[in-house]
Amino acid sequence: MMRSEFIERTKFEPTADEYAEIENEYMGTDLDKDAFCKMWKKQGGAERLMRLRARKIEDLEAEIANKDKLFETRTAADAKRYHELFGKDRIQMQKMENDIKTLKGIWEETDRQLADANARTAEAERKLAVLKEAFAIITGKEEQE
Fold first, then answer.
1. What's the predicted TM-score (pTM) here?
2. Helices and strands in the chain, H and E counts
């Protein structure tokens, strides 16, 4: 008997796996198609398969719930391990970044101070040259180098 014939006679649509079991059951009898389908319905075949489906759904839902729990547990464990492995590195990296900012600030301040000192030195040398020239004029002596 074909699956479509079984569905037509019983008005019940089994899955492919369910029909494979029904067909094995049918092949184990010497009944014709119509007699087998009547007997199958009378003996509660559809109800039995519906109970099996309900149990299978419950089992699958429980499996999903267990896998969800396992996923959450692993996710939490992975996050904890990540923080253990990389948290210290991140803290050290932030400290190094802060140190770099501090050193950059010191470098910029030192560079500014050096530029100011160079400007003051240039001004002092210019004034010294003016004083030497004035001294030479006052004393009547040319500067000897």
1. 0.49
2. 4, 0
| Residues 20 and 28: beta-carbon distance below 8 Å | no
Q: Please name the residues in contact with 20: beta carbons below 8 A apart, sequence gap of 6 or more.
A: none
pLDDT in tens, 92-127: 888 899 999 999 999 999 999 999 999 999 999 999
CA 67/CA 57 separation, integer angstroms: 15
Q: Quick check: is 36 in a domain?
A: yes
Number of domains in the chain: 1
First to last CA, the chain: 126
Identify the H or E element spanning 37.
Answer: helix 33-42
Give a yes or no: residue 144 inside a domain: no
In Å, how far are 25, 32, 99 from 2, measured between CA atoms?
A: 13, 13, 80
CA distance linking residue 12 with residue 52, whole number of Å: 14
Angle (nearest 5°) at CA 131 between 129 and 133: 70
- Amino acid sitting at position 68: D
